[in-house]
Design a protein that fits this description.
Layout: E1 6-10, E2 16-17, E3 33-37, E4 70-71, H1 76-82, E5 86-87, E6 91-96, H2 102-115, E7 120-124, H3 129-139, E8 146-150, H4 154-164, E9 168-172, H5 189-206, E10 209-215, H6 227-231, E11 234-239, E12 246-254, E13 262-268, E14 271-274, H7 278-282, E15 293-300, E16 303-315, E17 323-326, H8 330-344, E18 351-357, H9 369-381, E19 389-391, E20 394-395, E21 401-402, H10 407-416, E22 421-425, H11 426-432, E23 441-445
Parallel strand pairs: 6-10, 6-11, 7-8, 7-9, 9-10, 15-19, 17-18, 19-22, 22-23
Antiparallel strand pairs: 1-2, 1-3, 4-5, 11-12, 12-13, 13-14, 15-16, 16-18, 20-21
Length: 453
């Protein structure tokens, strides 16, 4: 009897190899290759006679470029992240840490959709119907157009989808689903890849919007093959600190809208509440006239958000000074500390430095460079900035201030919250000065060495 052929899959990126290797050459992860039989993918099997559909290539001039119709979710923040609403036939991956609120968010979305006449099927492989009802009772009564199914067999789920033909389907979560005839255990890379491909066919051929819930690993990446992110149309990450009530929904991939858009929510006893003015919430409780505290204006997609940058500089008790960050990049802090010491003459390199982005947000854009340096300078000199002052700007290795995107939009957002002074790059200052009211003070800097003046 011929030996069954096997191949090896990387559990992180999904790349296939003919033999086992200690390190995956594609993603450089160690010990992630698993063996599986080389079988025909179930996603290639006929799907209810749909495989008989004839296709014909067309010229681009014959393609209709009208905008895709979108279904509103009833949640303005979620619509913003999705690019204006749900597109029919789209496949969306929603991921995040356990207990962050993924299921609650999608359940609230389904409740709103059903209340507006949209048929929805919510499939849970982790909770029983009784558990789902207890959770749903916290957010309010659900319409009869919202149906629930507690099942893990993908074949039975597909039968119900094709029979009921709902407009929106929720799969919570894809790691708990299994497909008969597919190799590997439920939650493994082979199963996840084939189930996702199968659901993608259903979404595209039946014009059904499918939302997949995906768990993340301890490293913060989606569990299973990385290929899962490449297969779907939209990838949403639900972020937040378990010690705070704020949650941030971020779009890192969107074929139907802008990427890097965010939506801000607050977790309450009755579910997730939208935060329509994130800047005001992020600055709530900010200390006044305190050294080491600076308000920065950041951009998340097309939305400007004001956040508080806090810095603490103190004499080190060790031979090697400590560098610690919360909410921003540690490597960037090391670079800015070296630039600041070199260009301003301040011996901050021999001090412990701590930087924190208050409110639980994580910001990595270059416009945060100048606020961090100002916060470090303010704490080191023990001199607070002028009241009602914001800052933004990128700092280079020579200490120069460089332009950032949307400077005028950032200034206008600061004006809405009552800030009257702005510290920014001289190039940005010159470009927007004529469009800013005369009572708004713009302080343009060419180099951080100007701080000595």
């Amino acid at each position: 009897m011929a030996k069954e052929k096997t191949v090896f899959f990387c559990s992180e990126c999904g790349t296939e190899f003919p033999k086992w290797l200690g390190q995956c050459p594609a993603c450089k992860a160690w010990g992630t290759l698993v063996e599986a039989p080389k079988t025909k993918p179930s996603a290639d099997l006929p799907l209810g006679g749909l495989s008989g559909k004839k296709v014909k290539p067309v010229s681009l001039r014959d393609v209709d470029v009208t905008e895709e119709p979108r279904t509103k979710t009833g949640m303005e923040e979620l619509d913003r992240v999705l690019g204006g609403g749900i597109v029919a036939g789209s496949l969306v991956l929603a991921s995040g840490d356990p207990g962050i609120g993924k299921s609650t968010l999608l359940l609230q979305m389904c409740r709103n959709l059903a209340a507006n006449g949209t048929s929805v099927l919510y499939v849970s492989g982790e909770e029983s119907l009784a558990q789902i009802k207890l959770r749903a009772m916290r957010i309010g009564e659900c319409s009869d157009r919202l149906l629930f199914l507690s099942e893990t067999d993908m074949g039975a789920i597909a039968d119900q989808i094709l029979t009921l033909h709902p407009e929106v389907v929720i799969i919570d979560s894809v790691q708990t689903m299994s497909m008969t005839g597919s190799s590997g255990a439920p939650g493994g890379p082979v199963q996840i890849r084939e189930i996702t491909a199968y659901l993608m066919r259903i979404a595209k051929e039946e014009a059904i919007s499918v939302f997949l819930v995906g768990h993340v690993t301890k490293d913060g990446v989606v569990a299973g093959p990385k290929m899962l992110e490449h297969m779907v149309d939209t990838v949403l990450y639900f972020e937040g600190d378990s010690t705070t009530s704020y949650r941030i929904l971020r779009a890192v991939k969107n074929r139907f809208g802008s990427t890097n858009e965010i939506g801000v929510f607050e977790m309450r006893g009755d579910g997730l509440q939208e935060v329509l003015n994130p800047s005001e919430h992020m600055l709530r409780g900010m200390p006044e006239n305190e050294p080491g505290s600076v308000v920065a204006v950041t951009m998340e997609g097309t939305r400007p958000i004001l956040v508080e940058v806090q810095a603490l500089v103190c004499k080190t008790n060790y031979s090697q000074p400590r560098r610690t960050t919360a909410g921003t990049d540690l490597n960037r802090l090391n670079i800015l500390t070296a630039v600041m010491q070199r260009r301003t003459g301040v011996e901050i390199g021999q001090c412990d430095t701590y930087v924190n982005i208050a409110g639980g947000m994580r910001v990595t854009e270059p416009a945060l460079d100048l606020p961090i340096i100002l916060a470090l300078w303010s704490c080191y000199r023990n001199r607070p900035l002028e009241p009602h002052t914001v800052a933004f700007g990128e700092v280079g290795l020579t200490g120069e201030l460089r332009s950032v995107t949307q400077p005028l939009l950032r200034v206008r957002e600061a004006m809405k919250l009552g800030y009257r002074s702005v510290i920014l790059a001289q190039s940005d200052c010159d470009s927007i000065r004529s469009q800013v009211p005369a009572d708004i003070k713009l302080y343009g800097l060419r180099n951080i060495g100007d701080l000595k003046k």
